[in-house]
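User: Show me sequence and structure for the first protein, then do the same for the second.

Assistant: Starting with the first protein.
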Amino acid sequence: MASLHNRVNRKELREKMRNSTEERMTISFYRYAKIDNPQAFRDDLYRQWEKLGVMGRTYVAYEGINAQISLPKANFEQFRTELYQISFLNGCRLNIAIDDDGKSFFKLTIKLREQIVADGIDDPTFNPADTGVHLNAKDFNEKLEADNIILVDMRNFYESEVGHFKGAITPEVENFRESLPIIADMLAENKDKTMLMYCTGGIRCEKASAYMKHRGFENVFQLEGGIIEYTRQCRNLGVPNKFLGKNFVFDERLSERISDDIIAKCHQCGTTCDTHHNCSNVACNTLFIQCPECAAKYEGTCSTECQEIIHLPAEQFEEIKRHPKEGKNKRIFARKMA
C-alpha cells in the first residue's frame, strides 16, 4: 500500500521545487459541507492528488474542506474534472493566484481538523449558515462609496499591514478566532450601519458575517471570493481595483502584488517596504518585514540577538533550537521600528 504521507526531507523538497522548470499554478478553494467520514475522504483525496502532482496544504473536517494547493498547469483540466465529480464540490469556485510562479508549495499535506477555520465560537444558538450578502467586485465598489458604512478587514494584523482597502478597520489581532469577539465588541455601537467585510479568499468571511449577524448586526455584506476573486474580476471586467498594496498568502510566496502602492515599513529601520521574511535564525523563524539593506546588515535575522545566534557553534545552536526563547518563534505582532 502506498504511503499517504510525504516522507522526504523538507529541505530536499524545497530545493527540488525551487529548481524545477515545470509550469505550475496555485489554486485555493473551500466548501462548507457535511463530510461523514473525514478520514476516508482525506485518504481518497491524497491518492487522487498525488497522481496529479498536487502540492499544498489542505484541511478536512466534518464541516468541509479548505485547500491551498499548486499543481502542474498541464494537469489542471483533469484536476478540475475529478474534483467536480465529488458531489459537494461540483462547481465550487477555484481561486487562481494572481501574482504566481507556481513555486508556492513543495509537498502535499492533507490534515484532519476539528474545523476548517477555527472560530472559537462555543454557542449552540450560533447558525454559521446565516451568512451575510455576497457582493461581486462591482457591487462591492459601489457599497464602498455609500454613506453610513463600516469596512472591516477580517484578516490578521500581519496580513492587513502590507495590503488593505482604504478606510478599512484593521484589528490588531493575530488569528481569526480572537478577531470575532474583538470586532463585534469594538463596533457594538454601530449596528445601525452597513457592515462590509473581506478576507483573502472568502472563507473567513463566511463565518465572520454569520457571527456578526448573530451579534445583532443586521446589514452585513461580504466580498465574494475575497481579495483574490475581487482582483480577478476587476481585471476581467475593467472595474477599478481599490485594494492597496499586497495580498498576504500562506505559502512560499508570502504575498501577491495587487497594486503598486507600498503601505508598510521595514520593522528594523522604518523605510518604506512591504516584503515579509522569516527570520534566518530557524530557532526563531519570526515573520517580519525587512528591507534589502537591513537584510544585508542583519543577515536576514530579525534582531542583533538572532544575528549572534546564527554564528554560534553548531552544538550551541542545536541546544537553542531545542529550547527556543518563549514567544520568540511567534510572528512579530508589533512594529519593531528603529
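Switching to the second protein now.
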Amino acid sequence: MASDKFQVFSAGVKPTKLNAYAVKVMFEVGIDISSHQSKSVDKFLNQKFDFVITVCDNAKQTCPLFSGWHQKIHWDIEDPADVKGSEEEKLIFFRKVRDKIRIKCQGIVNNVEGFI
C-alpha cells in the first residue's frame, strides 16, 4: 500500500517472537511476513520519522520519545495476542485487527498523498 511513497517500520515496546496467527492472517491477504522479525523500538530511537503510530494502550504509555519532529498518532486497538479462545476464535480476532489496521493505514495514505 503506497510503498512507492512511504517507508514503513514496525517495532514493539516488548518484542517477542513472530505470532503464528499474524503470519497466517497476513498470508490470507497475500502478504508474507514469515521471514520478518520482532524488533524493539529502541532500534529506531535515533531515526527521524514523519509519523509515529502506536496501536495499543500499552505502547502509547510506554513508547519512548523519538528525536525530531513527528506527528504522533494513537490507534486504540486491542492486542490480538491477548485474546483467549479456540484457534478459530483467535483467527477471527486477528483478521478483525488486520482489517482495522488496513483501513486506518489507507486513511493515512489517502490524506498524506494530497501533500506529496
